[in-house]
Amino acid sequence: MNKKVANYLGKLIISVGLYLLLPLFSLLFYPTEINHLLHFIVPAVLGVIGGSIILKLSDGVTDLDIDFKEASLVVFIVWGVAVGLGSIPFISSGQLNLIDAIFESMSGWSTTGLSMMDVEQTPKIFLLWRSVMQYIGGLGFVVLVMSSLLKTHDFDLYQAEGRDDRFGSKLMDTAKIIVKIYLFYTIIGIVMYFLAGMNLFDAINHAMSALSTGGFSTKAASMGYWNSSIINLITMGLMLLGTVSFAIHYRLLIKRELQVINDAELKLGVVLIPSFTILITGLALFGTQFSAGMEDIVFSVISALSSAGLGTVSFGAWPAASLLLLTILMIIGGGVGATAGGLKQERVIALWKSMIWGIKKELYNGDQEITSHFFLRGKRVELSPEYAQRILSYVALYIFTFLLGVFVFVASGYSVIDSMFEYASTLSTIGLSVGITSPEMPTFLKLVQIITMWFGRLEFIAIIIAILKLTTHFYELDVEVDDSNYSV
């Protein structure tokens, strides 16, 4: 094994092992669950010992610069190990079978929020573990470990986990700032939930779930359990914070740069949320067999766009047109550099700008130079042919995967609209469901969703490169990743 890869891999796997100890804090509130202690201690020890052995293979290497192919391999393996270790508590305790446990673990780490568990019957320590997984997954292993353990300035490892935002004098400073902002919002969320009437355990879990745009809840009815407008308002606020790039939070909170409100992603969100709310409200007013209040509609729209997946209502009775609108929002998703999933708003904006740019070029027939740009995270982004090509390539890959997944669901006997909704929720790591995802669904579809959540969270490229590196001589190919259009 490459010594530099071993260095990163060992430290990251050790961190995964340590994360498995975090749910034990629930024993302070629920000491009767002490019988579940070993279900977390054993995989934690496995992670720490396994990571330490791999770290030993690095032989004390100090040159930590790795290329994107090596970084992709590190992230690919770490996520695989994390999902495996994360599933052990569910399996060893008898909470879930093997496939369902892997599904639950992948759903947690990827911040999807689709679940195989009966949360009303699940011990609190396992509910907290689900929340911990999605909370850490929302930031990413690399960001957390880079903020404290990994002393590196290498951007490739950071980018391989689906992040492109950079601010601060060093990359480590960026990671530390992100963690501080994340913790700050979490504490505020916990306090507000507690003051609004939640008990402390539910407040902690839902603050982590909403901010990480994860979607796991401690209640089967999700946020609808409380039937509280104040709690819904707090949740919508946290979901919106989670859908905005950390670079924007940094520029607003720390740098006090108010001009960042000119950000194209922020503007898109301001347009999408009221527009889709009005459309779905119109269907509620004039449609048949559909009754939903304005608060529930706004909540659902924000939950879909932010990829949070928390809900106040069941979508089983919603008409196809309303589900289709929510599916579109789930596909769009949140901002680049946020905890949210989806296609990402930057790519949607770039796609729209590319289309307008192409039309203008045809209209002017080369008589004058046509340029296009937009402002993103405080920076002017030029729509160059290379940048547009990269965006179009990713969008094409996403759409192809989406159509293939929908076909699989339809071929399994589900309606087209339900299949589109459920698979968009899986691919964009949302967590909203029309009821297809359940312990009773076919095992093959569970496996499809597990793979899809993994690809959706790491945004395809890192996984594809890692697989090629493991199975071919891809390491010898001259492949470069241009991140110049994403730096902040």
Range of helix content: 55-70%
* Overall outline: globular
The arrangement of helices and strands along the chain is HHHHHHHHHHHHHHHEEHHHH
- Mean pLDDT value: 87
Main pleated-sheet profile? 2 strands, antiparallel
Strand-residue proportion:
under 5%
Number of helices: 19
Report the span from N to C terminus: 33 Å
What would you say this structure looks like, in words?
- With 488 residues, the protein is mostly helical.
- The protein has helices at residues 3-19, 37-56, 68-92, 98-109, 124-139, 141-146, 155-160, 171-195, 200-211, 229-242, 246-253, 264-286, 294-306, 320-332, 345-364, 385-411, 416-427, 443-458, 461-471; strands at residues 373-376, 379-382.
- It has a two-stranded antiparallel sheet with strand order 1-2.
- Helix 15 (345-364) packs across helix 16 (385-411).
- The protein is globular.
- The model is unreliable at 474-488 (pLDDT under 50).
Please outline what is shown here:
With about 500 residues, the chain is an all-alpha fold. The protein has helices at about 5-20, 35-55, 70-90, 100-110, 125-140, 140-145, 155-160, 170-195, 200-210, 230-240, 245-255, 265-285, 295-305, 320-330, 345-365, 385-410, 415-425, 445-460, 460-470, and strands spanning about 375, 380.
Q: How are the secondary structure elements laid out?
A:
Blueprint: H1 3-19, H2 37-56, H3 68-92, H4 98-109, H5 124-139, H6 141-146, H7 155-160, H8 171-195, H9 200-211, H10 229-242, H11 246-253, H12 264-286, H13 294-306, H14 320-332, H15 345-364, E1 373-376, E2 379-382, H16 385-411, H17 416-427, H18 443-458, H19 461-471
Antiparallel strand pairs: 1-2
Helix pairs in contact: 1-2, 1-3, 2-3, 3-4, 3-19, 4-5, 4-18, 5-9, 8-9, 8-10, 9-10, 10-13, 12-13, 12-14, 13-14, 14-17, 15-16, 16-17
